[in-house]
Amino acid sequence: MAEIVCKLLIIGGGPGGYVTAIRAAQLGIDTLIVDEGPLGGTCLNIGCIPSKALIHAGEEFHKLAEAATGGSPFGLSAASPAIDLGKTMAWKDGIVTRLTGGVAGLLKKAGAKSLRGRASIRDGKTVTVETDLGPQTVHAETIVIATGSEPVELPSLPFGGKVISSTGALALTQLPESLVVVGGGYIGLEIGTAYAKLGVKVTVVEAAPRILPVWDAELTGPVAKRLAALGVEVMTGAKVTGLADDGETLQVATADGSDITLAADKILVAVGRRPRTQGFGLEQLALPMDGPFIRIDNQCRTAMRGVYAIGDVTGEPMLAHRAMAQGEMVADLIAGQPLVWDKRAIPAVCFTDPEIASVGLGPNAARRDGQAVLVGTFPFRANGRAMSLAREDGFVRVIAREDNHVVLGIEAVGAGVAEFASAFSLAIEMGARLEDIADTIHAHPTMGEAIQESALAALGRGLHL
Ligand code: FAD
Ligand code: NAD
What is the distance between the alpha carbons of residues 90 and 22, in angstroms, rounded to a whole number? Predict the structure, then answer.
């Protein structure tokens, strides 16, 4: 068995792991990153990037279809559009290949080594990696566990056949006629909307009383409205109980207590993800857990000296940018820099139509903290740029402390507001007050003017409403 000795071993080449590796190698640490699959992890291969490519393709198709059916607000007309989903997926795969190849290049440039194979932990300093060339033993001073997460399977609806996870939904080469989406959260609504725009009959079955239950009804309202306009049927308070005996139709217990069946060519189950903690010897370390996640402190240290954990395996929110930020911090820590996790907020963006961007506290959460707050809202229907894009749905909302006007949260729902998230994060990270936003010149005409106007509204100085 081949033996490798390194200072730092990272298990998992997703956004958490590969950022740790790049940063650590840049800092001169002898680094090895191991992944059983292609570099880039869930995010680059089967998550963030491919889903956004599909969402964009859906939007392009939908615009053409609108023009073809006389629905274009701009007076455009077009012939009935067609799609070759195989080509769409090939285009999407091309983006994935470019990005994952880019990660390999970045690792090489920084001087990090990578190894393809499945890692099994033997103890806090020793890991066996099953590679194509046989097992290799790695001895490392420090280990970072960045093994990510995987889709939750419903016992009553196991994956297989027509029941698919997000990975399957992002790899279809033929459009199904109908798609039932179980779970009206991030994945279900992002991918469900994309397929609805491609002409698929989509039904969403959500167990909670509302879609996207992590946000309040005001913020998710425009999304629900748009889903209805796209012909997506949304059943809330409903639970799937399994496939009928024919193995074809889906059985659903609805909110009013009746049992119905839904026909579907494909069933996408998107009811959450769970941390990947099983099957690679993690139990050898007997680490304390936080529920299903590895427990970490404010430096991403586990209970065992020299063993860190980052990314989805460590808890919510399971987002790529959290994993990357943790990875960067851990690399700096291993290089001896005295850091702690002191981020004020982690942005959340849902790429539905319209998009949702949310950073910091919403009004309810802020009030729950016992805080007296000011809330300023500005709707896109009063924004010239939104009108010129025919996207007047949605608004920006800012939440600030009443006493000193420090901004606690900024949220938006609207077309393209994902790009606002960086400005929201910057404001909160820099401790902005309402006046900082209100007195900053925002370019005209942009939808971003609504950010300034929401701060003006909170201060009682609104101009354009
Ligand atoms: P992962 O990216 O899951 O990487 C873990 C890696 O570890 C994998 O490559 C795996 O092969 C490897 N691994 C696991 N065990 C072993 C082992 N024993 N040996 C070797 N290798 C191993 N997040 C966002 O922020 N924005 C989005 O828009 C977004 N969209 C998403 C869309 C979808 C459809 C999905 C599924 C997820 C999306 N996410 C999004 C979530 C995001 O993908 C994750 O939060 C992120 O990938 C977590 O990074 P990670 O490094 O913790 O783990
Ligand atoms: P989610 O937690 O976002 O949504 C799951 C939904 O399923 C919830 O609304 C929940 O109430 C519902 N649900 C749970 N059990 C159910 C059942 N038995 N029947 C019907 N509904 C049920 O999870 P997800 O959509 O699978 O996404 C997983 C994670 O991936 C997200 O939490 C997020 O961290 C990450 N993600 C992020 C993005 C993004 O940042 N844009 C996109 C996709 C995924």
Answer: 29
CB 6 within 8 A of CB 28: no
User: In the structure, which protein residues have their CB atom closer than 6 angstroms to any atom of ligand 1?
Assistant: 11-17, 34-37, 41-43, 47-48, 51, 118-119, 146-149, 166, 187, 276, 280, 311-312, 318-321, 323, 351
* CA 29 – CA 291 distance, rounded (Å): 33
Q: What is the pLDDT of residues 25-67, one digit of tens each?
A: 999 999 999 999 999 999 999 999 999 999 999 999 999 999 9
Which residue has its alpha carbon closest to ligand 1 atom 3?
148
Distance separating alpha carbons of residues 121 and 112, to the nearest angstrom: 21
Which residue's CA lies nearest to atom 33 of ligand 2? 318
Q: What is the pTM of this model?
A: 0.98
Beta carbons of 277 and 286 less than 8 angstroms apart: no
Which helix (H) or strand (E) segment is 261 a member of? strand 259-262
Return the exposure string of 344-368: e unless at least 16 CB atoms fall within 10 Å of the residue's CB, then b: ebebbbbbbbbbbbbbbbbbeebee
pLDDT at 1 over 80: no
- Supply the pLDDT for residue 405: 98
Q: What 8-state DSSP symbol labels residue 400?
A: E
Number of helices (H), then strands (E), belonging to the chain: the values are 13, 24
Buried-exposed string 9-44: b where 16+ CB fall within 10 A, e elsewhere: bbbbbbbbbbbbbbbbbbbebbbbbbbbebbbbbbb
